[in-house]
């Protein structure tokens, strides 16, 4: 449970950021990459990133575990652009880097390169900066327009009655005159004392289920909260928004085959594909066979059914690298 303690002066400083934060999305997506949860929504993205991420971007995997604490310094709240976050990251004091890394590795073995971070050696900081940039370009940049759109919509939903942060936004409209506490579901027990600093609410595309905040109480009070996802690979939604004018893909492959390709950002059986696209079973089988022969679709038999999903090449056709 997260207990947020508001003073009477905090309410006027509650702000809802109507956009995602690049550094927080990097951090939260690294958790999503490492832990195979929400497979329906994030599975195709996860497989695509893991097959494309070069060594330069994998250094971040040393710092962010599948579960548990990741260094607070990786997610400074700076500005709308990645360059703003990188500038704030590289300006992190040595003392904070050292403390956060001690918490992250808890006395256990550490990757050798992280010792240079503690001393803010130029080589280690360049490695970290390259890792952040490389990871963002592969994992987030191709979908950033959709992520931003979804976060903006999620911010409105979360503030509405019944939304993730509705208790906070509702109280901010008619602030209590005394000290008050709002409790939210959280992974662990934690208290956040605002102390007149206010609170920044940020919608988070890659936030799994519960809100997220800094562990260090001295850092600016922020609360990342999850946005709602439809039960479908978000790559399919992203491709709809990024579809070229005149539907170039449909002209290239044919309208039905292009629809099959888009549908297979999530795994489907031949029958499921036929039903979802309102085509015959034989037509669905023919289209998946041709796409498989072109290397765009992989198929695997499970008993009496065959399941189909896009290959990395198929994903690249829908989502060309930036």
From TrEMBL:
SMART domains recorded: HTH_ARSR
PROSITE patterns in UniProt: HTH_ARSR_2 (PS50987)
Location of the HTH arsR-type domain: 237-322
GO MF annotation, one: DNA binding
Source domain of life: Bacteria
Keywords: DNA-binding, Transcription, Transcription regulation
UniProt keyword Transcription present: yes
InterPro entries (alphabetical): ArsR-like_HTH (IPR011991), HTH_ArsR_DNA-bd_dom (IPR001845), Metal_resp_trans_reg (IPR051011), WH-like_DNA-bd_sf (IPR036388), WH_DNA-bd_sf (IPR036390)
Name of protein: DNA-binding transcriptional regulator, ArsR family
Species of provenance: Marinactinospora thermotolerans DSM 45154
């Amino acid at each position: 449970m997260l207990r947020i303690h508001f003073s009477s002066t905090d309410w006027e400083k509650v702000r809802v950021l109507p956009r995602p934060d690049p550094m927080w999305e990097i951090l939260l997506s690294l958790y999503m990459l490492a832990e195979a949860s929400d497979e329906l929504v994030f599975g195709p993205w996860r497989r695509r990133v893991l097959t494309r991420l070069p060594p330069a971007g994998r250094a971040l995997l040393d710092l962010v575990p599948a579960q548990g604490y990741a260094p607070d310094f990786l997610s400074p709240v700076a500005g709308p652009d990645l360059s703003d976050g990188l500038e704030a990251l590289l300006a992190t004091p040595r003392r904070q880097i050292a403390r956060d890394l001690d918490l992250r590795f808890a006395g256990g073995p550490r990757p050798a390169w992280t010792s240079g971070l503690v001393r803010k050696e130029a080589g280690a900081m360049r490695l970290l900066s390259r890792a952040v940039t490389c990871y963002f370009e592969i994992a987030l940049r191709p979908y950033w327009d959709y992520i931003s759109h979804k976060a903006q919509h999620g911010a409105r939903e979360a503030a509405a009655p019944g939304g993730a942060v509705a208790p906070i936004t509702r109280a901010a409209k008619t602030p209590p005159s005394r000290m008050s506490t709002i409790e939210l579901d959280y992974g662990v027990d934690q208290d956040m004392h605002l102390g007149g600093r206010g609170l920044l609410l940020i919608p988070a595309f890659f936030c799994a289920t519960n809100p997220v905040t800094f562990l260090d109480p001295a850092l600016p009070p922020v609360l990342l909260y999850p946005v709602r996802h439809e039960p479908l690979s978000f790559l399919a939604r992203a491709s709809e928004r990024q579809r070229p004018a005149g539907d170039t893909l449909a002209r290239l492959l044919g309208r039905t085959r292009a629809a099959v390709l888009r549908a297979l950002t999530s795994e489907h059986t031949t029958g499921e594909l036929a039903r979802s696209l309102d085509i015959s079973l034989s037509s669905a089988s023919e289209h998946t066979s041709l796409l498989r022969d072109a290397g765009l679709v992989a198929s695997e038999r499970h008993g009496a059914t065959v399941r189909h999903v896009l290959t990395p090449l198929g994903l690249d056709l829908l989502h060309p690298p930036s």
